[in-house]
Amino acid sequence: MRTILVAIASLFSVAINACCGVIATTITYEPLGESTYRISVEVFTCLSAPSDHPEIWIDFGADAVSAPRVEIFDDPASDLRRSIYQLDHTFLEPGVHVINATIGNRAGGIVNIPNSISQTLCVEALVHIDPELGPNHSIRFNTPPTQVIQNWNTFSYQPDPTDMDGDSLVFEMVAARGLYCQPILGYSTLTGVNVVSVDPTNGTFIWDYPPFNGEFNLTIQGSEYRNGQLIGQMTRDMAICVVGFIAGVGEGETMDPFTIHPTLATDQVWIDAQGIWSIAVLDAAGRMVLQPNNTRSTTPIVLSSLVAGAYTLLAMDGDGRFRTARFVKGR
Are the C-beta atoms of 169 and 187 separated by less than 8 Å? Predict the structure, then answer.
């Protein structure tokens, strides 16, 4: 019996974490005095990955200093290691200072980073030392970078940013950085069949229908403005793993008999099954184009928003079992 090609995707949103190697890196800072700051770098890696990083390098422009790992948290059930590296630094003069943190090489096979296994992973922060503006805490992302949510063919991440100083915040998607924190040659921004974006007000990332499965890089930069001036920036470099998304539906039998009527429709169809069903309608390319509310056999599925063509109705019952049926919408 052939089954639908759904893999881990479901009718419900699920957190996904299938990447390995260095999954995510974030650089932040906090003031300890007028010009002394504590730089923190958070790194998520897979426990099963062969390499580990007892220390990393932080570059302040004139010199690079080794930063020790001060905390380590292992989650064997999720194959995750979370490492925290910290370093205190006093800036000798006011002005804008750029900080770079290097965490070895990237994982292999990242789709939008050519030859990624040989590329350095570097994240960047900016600190503006100005006695009139006062000290500054960087933006904090409260949602772990592993909490990417997949809902059908849409991937999303809500970083939940906060700023202790009440500064104005702006977020954007930027290119990943490589050796010496320079742009990576050949890096390509993410593209989606429908949309890919980062909300400038809260950093929420939406990727509706990636082009194909694979591991991709996403880098989000948060900027802070105080009295109209840029006072700080931080960066999160993270992996988005597109695995098992609904790229299509296989031909042949489904797991259980499931029918709808009519199969040639113009306005609406009904399901011929008992119980309550979670429903999605996919177009010929496997894109979800309609997701009605939970449906009973007595509730029609309204097709007015669909253009003429062939569609697949994918349904899941309360036990998590999938069924499919097909119909053609006329003009």
Answer: no
